[in-house]
# Entry
Amino acid sequence: MINAVRHAHSKYLRYLESENCSRSCTQEGSTQTAENIEIARKKAEDLTNQLQKLEQQETVQSQDQDIAKRLINEAASRLSTAVKTGDMQAVKVAHFMLDSGNDKLNEAMK
# Structure
């Protein structure tokens, strides 16, 4: 009978050890999980910031392209009118506007 009690007691102690081990493993796992969640959150935040910066750059680039296209269209219109009237001074101005518009468009494309 004493042997049976000792055997039951040792089984119970092993059971308690395994429970404590599983609890500590669970706590370590939850700590690691919390750290992983924090790391993932920081990465997501960094990616969101990068995306916002890229969107802002794209918006500025798009605006610069629109300005350059309007300048080119205006210059083309002036050039057409100047050629029809034979006004060489207006042709030179329109040519300069076309060059400026092309330069601005090329800069916006970079």
